Each structure stands twice: as C-alpha cells, then as structure tokens.
Structures
1.
Amino acid sequence: MSAHRFTFFLPALSPETATFDVGGEEHHHLARVLRLSTGEMVSATNGRGLLVEAELTSIDKQRTIARVVRVLSDGVPARRVVLAMSLLPRAHFEVAVSQCVEVGVTDMWPLVAEKCHVRTWSKAAAARIEKIAIAAMKQSGRAWLPSIGDVRSLDSLAKDVASGRYGRAVVGDAGAPALVADARTGDAMAIVGPEAGFTDAEMARLVAAGAERVSVSSNRLRAETAAVVLVAALARAV
C-alpha cells in the first residue's frame, strides 16, 4: 500500500461493504486538493480494525464513489496500550495525541494532576481531540481509532492500575531506572505527568497501586515527547 494513499474514515464500513460513497470535506480534499481521478486506488477504515483497498469509480461535484477491491486487514491491535495523559496547554496536548495515535496507542484518558496548569475538559475539547486522532489515524495508515475517555482524577487512575485490568503500568519519571522489556505480554498503560511532573504524594500513590517508575531518555523530555516514547515502547513490546 502506498504511503501516500488517501484514506477515508467510514465508521459504518464492514467486511461486506461492496461500494461506498463519501461527500463533505473528505470528498473536497480528494477531488479538489489531491485531484485524484477515477481508476485510482484509495483506502478506507472503520477505525475498529478494518482496512480496505478501493478503486475510485466516480467523482462528481458532490461526492466520491469507490468500489472495494480487497480487505487489507480486519482485526484488533495485538495489545491494548492505554495512555493516561495529564492535561497540558492545548497545542502540547494535541501534539501528544497526534503522535501517540501514529505509534500505536489504543485508548487515551485525559488526567488531572495537582500541578496541571490546565484543569478543565469540555465537550468542545473532546471533539477537537477526536478530530485530531482521526486525522492521525488516516495519515499513519492505521485502522484503529483510539477511544478518548472522560477526564480522570489521579485516585481513579490509581484504582484502575491496582485492579490489574490494564496489564503492566508504567509512569514516566526522569530519575527512575530505564524502561526495559519484560516477559509479560498483553495490555499495558503509560502514565505521563504534567509539565512540572507529579507531586511526591501522587507518585507514591501510583507506585503503591502497582505502577513502575521508568525513564525513557537520559535527557529531560517534554511531557508530550515522553508520552510518545512510552507509548511506542509499550506498543512494540509484544
């Protein structure tokens, strides 16, 4: 599959879909920006693991029609990788979301920690983050759209870590031992603090719940960079 192939996001797409049509912004981008023509190949995904290859059969002023040629993939990710990301200034948080989608995150939870400068999470913010996640999924050729959960408190997060339902949990800490792979397989969770880090009490709460303090670089990383490196490492560790 071409690295530059245009991808549609079609939530209703199924393995039985023979043809599909798309209008709106995606049609405009395909027809007016990319200037694709009938006979060219595109991809489409439902964001739940299904990715198909399709041939453009009709492009008019209002919509694009494509015929499904073959199924490229249809399955869930090899492991669930959850990112609990402390709220950051909007631009920084959006970078973390976009790049973590590219490297394999499957679920994202906004987190409010004591040192967060941003402490609110609105429906508008959630809608914008979902739009960014969709764009990153399409750009990277992934077929899995991460779910964006409701904002979490640290106590709520610690209870989930203690439950063990999300597998190995690691929390970024510049002064901790380096992250190393282990024999465990299955799901994993990356926890990233705000720009000023977690307080000692918050870190102790997470460690007491079962999270591992780990570092991913000998350099001091921005929170959004640490999130991407942690997610990438956990997504690869299958």
2.
Amino acid sequence: MVGDAGLVMDPVTGMGIADAFRDAELLTEAVVAGLGSGTLLDTSLARYQRQRDESALPMYEFTTELAAFRPLGVEQRLLFNALAGKPAEVDRFLAMLTGAIPAADFFSPRHLFHLLGLRGMMKAALAQRRRAA
C-alpha cells in the first residue's frame, strides 16, 4: 500500500486507509505527469512527496501526541473542554480523525480561534511558550 510505504503512524487515529487512498491518488497523478506530459518523473515524484508530507504532517503530529498516552497537556485539555457540549464541533473533530476533513483545516488558527476563543488561544500560546523555554 502506498500509504504504508510513505509513513508509519500509530493506528490510534485510524488514518491508514485514508492515507493510502490519498497517497495512491497523488502518486498516480505524479506518475502519469512524469511519464506522459513531458515533466520529468523525478520532478513529479518530488512534488508528490512534498504534497504527501504536507498533507500527512498535522495528523502525524496529533497522532504521535495521542499515541504517547501522556497526561493531557494544556492545549489538549482546552480542545476537549471546548468540544464538550458542541455536537457539530465533535462531528468535525471525528471527521478530522477519519480523514474526511484535513487535520490542517481543523487545527487552523481560524478554526481554533472559533473553537477556543481569545482566552483559550492565549492559554494555548502561553503553554507553548513555556514548553519551548
């Protein structure tokens, strides 16, 4: 499977098959472009790798955090508390976990601001600053 060959991720988020379908489509487009349109195959495959990595990275980072089974950090507590009592946002969160919406969209600053509010965003930024120090 193309997805499994591209990256290995803990199955806690169940993204394997979604990654495999995404990566198979991207790779097919790259091979067709590299063999049929005059674009060099190496160039097309390098573009595929960049697209795959950019698409996979946000979920990979989130999955790595979940799979560590460490106590929840400030950011995770803020997120899960913000989801409580908001069925539409829980649906969006679950859609992100299954790959129906990109993790980068769910975790975009705009969506997080909508979900957490100004106070929550400030708490998350302070936690990140403390962790980096």
3.
Amino acid sequence: MLVAAAVCPHPPGIVPELARGAADELAGLRQACTAALDAVAVAAPEMLVVVGSGDETRSVPPGSSGTFAAYGTDVRVTLGSDGSTSADIALPLLVGAWLLERHGWAGPVQGELVARDATVEECMSLGSRLAERADRVAMLVMGDGAAGRTAHAPRPFDPRAEEFDRAVVAALDSGDPAGLMALDPAVARDVEAAGFAAWQVLAGAAGEVIFDAEILYHRAPLGVGYFVAVWERHG
C-alpha cells in the first residue's frame, strides 16, 4: 500500500552543474525537494518507486544509470544503489535519481515511466498496481506544471497555465486524488504540463486512503510551474 509520496519537478537546472547561472535561483527548490524526501523517509517504506512520464510505459530496473550530457554536462547518476547498468533514462528519472543521490537515500528504489499520452484510466491502473508491490510503498512523483506561465517561459505564454497550476496545487495541498483526477487532460496537454500523467499515477496509487498533505514549494521561476508536495498516510 502507498504510505507516502513526494512530488517534485524535473528541470535539468535543478542540478547546479547544469543551471547556467540559475543555481541560486533554484536553491529553494532543491531544499524543498530534500525536505520532501526527508518526510517520506520517516514513513519507513520498504520500496520507493520513482515515477515520471516518457515515450512509453515501462519499468526501469534498479541500478540503471544515465547522464545529463544531453542537457549540457556529463553528470552521471544511478537509480538506486544496487549495481550500475547503463541505460537511456528519461529526464524525470534522471532528476529523480540525482535527488535521491543528493539525499543519500539508501533503501530499494525502482523506476517507472508512464507514457505521456496514456489515458487517465491507464495511469490510475498503473498506480494501483505499483501500490501493491510491497506492504509499504512510497513514491517520488516527478513532473513539471504548466509551461508558458510568463512571457519569458520556454513556451509561448498561455493565460490558462496559471489557473491550471492552481488546481494542481489545490489537489496536492489537500491530499486529494479526486482533485488530480478532475484535471482536464486536454488543457494539461495544451499548457504542456509534463507532470500530468505521473500525477494521475499518484491518484491511482492513493485510491481512497486519507493522506495528510502539504505544499512545500510553488513557484514559476523560469516561467514553468514547479511544485513540491508531501503526502503521508493518515493515522
């Protein structure tokens, strides 16, 4: 069952070597991600599943390693501490692995990619299955919010982007799977919210369980919505 989850974004610039002058601007984001993982560790999960979106739905074996070379610097990371098998790891899992290495996470870690064009039903079904992988499962859910939040964003400004992100924040801050399920897939696609599919996986894993939740970070420093949240099983 799912006992805790951390929700974090996956901008390459969160890695200081890739920040290109924005390292200080994202310092608060890095601190919030560390705090979220601290809270998840307190739940003592038997397994941590790192979830992010990709071209297809597939599992990524523990010990898979990859590099940020495609994003400017050859910073290498390994997903979990068991072994080191070279693999083409998608950006959400690269950043997730970097956050875990920085945190010093020592427990079992698995990776899971969900196709970015998967239906809400497919995402929720995957989440339900992931929650059953151990008696105490935690998730690190990787995903950016809406792009185009400002005129200086990497995507054209979209007036719906901020409103969409507010709905995401409301659902994450209340530990509300139904709020995540209610997000409009068409709008999510239009505003290029990269985390949409991963958030639906979280909703499926949570089911009808009550979670204590808290938003630790919500800003758009680069014109893209970044949120950090913690869900902890109530009681």
